[in-house]
Amino acid sequence: MSLDKAPEKRSGQRSWIHLDLYTRRQKEEVERLIKLGAKKYPWRYPPKSDFIVLEDPDGNLFCVVENGNVR
Questions:
Q1: Which residues in 10-49 are b (16+ Cβ under 10 Å) and which e?
Q2: Counting Cβ atoms within 10 Å, is residue 64 exposed (0-12), middle (13-18) or buried (19+)?
Q3: DSSP secondary-structure letter at 15?
């Protein structure tokens, strides 16, 4: 877990808290999380993105990141 200082106060409804989950098996992890109630979020991905944005049942966004360095 890391904590970063935000440059300004948050406005709007979305939370400042954002979780990134790192895995070597992104596809399988995304499928597992969707079965648990997450939904794919319509994000505009840059080319060669290594992450997928999901939304939890409460509307919080989080990412599942492909990372071959995870133990």
A1: eeeeeeeeeeebbbeebeebbeebeeeebeeeeeeeeeee
A2: buried
A3: -
Structure confidence by residue, pLDDT tens digits, 24-66: 999 999 999 999 999 999 999 999 999 999 999 988 899 999 9
Smallest CA-to-CA distance from 70 within 36, 30, 20, 35 is with 20
Written as six digits, the tokens of 69 are: 């360095």
How far apart (Å, rounded) are the C-alpha atoms in residues 60 and 42?
A: 13
What is the CATH topology of the domain spanning 19-66?
A: 3.30.720
Structure tokens given for 36: 């648990």
Q: What is the pTM of this model?
A: 0.75
